[in-house]
Amino acid sequence: MEFNIPKCVHLPITNKTKPRLHSYSLYGVPLFTVSSHPYLGKKLDTKLTWANHITDIASKSSNVLGMNKRTLGPCKHDVKETAYNMLVRPKLEYASPIWNPHTTTQIKHLEKVQHCAARFVKNDHRRQTATTDLNSHPWMTHS
């Protein structure tokens, strides 16, 4: 097996505030030390927290939802719902049992996207609490 050395990095995993720095090399080529790196679609960091990954997921989902708003604004409810289920929801739920958000901040970050989607699908652009919107749509709740 051959390694693509430019794609290889060193990701130290530790909870220490001042970790020991080691330099690693592969076939004589030094590896770059990184603080986070994507692996199998997930973003790993040095403390194995999912904060960066959840921020990226929420950002990507919000961008796709924004594109849906621009292109599907005048469309019917069922078209918007289908677009949400096909384009936005998979990004929010991909491998979620692994990185399941457990802090309130992370949960709110993901639910913000769902609240925007609920208002968009229902054509309700008021700034009210969207909890009732989420409860009225079984397709909006994520597992």
What does this entry look like structurally?
By secondary structure, this protein is mainly α. The chain contains five helices and six strands, in the order E-E-E-E-E-E-H-H-H-H-H. The chain folds into two domains: 5-34, no CATH class; 51-136, no CATH class. The chain has helices at residues 51-72, 77-93, 96-99, 104-122, 131-136; strands at residues 9-10, 25-26, 29-30, 32-33, 36-39, 42-45. A two-stranded parallel ribbon has the order 1-4. It has a two-stranded antiparallel sheet with strand order 2-3. A hairpin with a 2-residue loop joins strand 2 (25-26) and strand 3 (29-30). The model has no long low-confidence stretch (mean pLDDT 84).
Count of DSSP strands: 6
- Global structural class: mainly alpha
Spell the H/E element sequence: EEEEEEHHHHH
Q: Low-confidence parts lasting 5 or more residues at pLDDT below 50?
A: none
Spatial strand sequence of the major β-sheet: 1-4
- How many helices does DSSP assign? 5
- Mean of residue pLDDT values: 84
The value of Rg in angstroms is 20 Å
Helix content: 40-55%
The main pleated sheet reads as: 2 strands, parallel
Tally of distinct domains: 2
Shape: elongated
Question: How large is the share of residues in beta strands?
Answer: 5-15%
CA distance, first residue to last residue:
39 Å
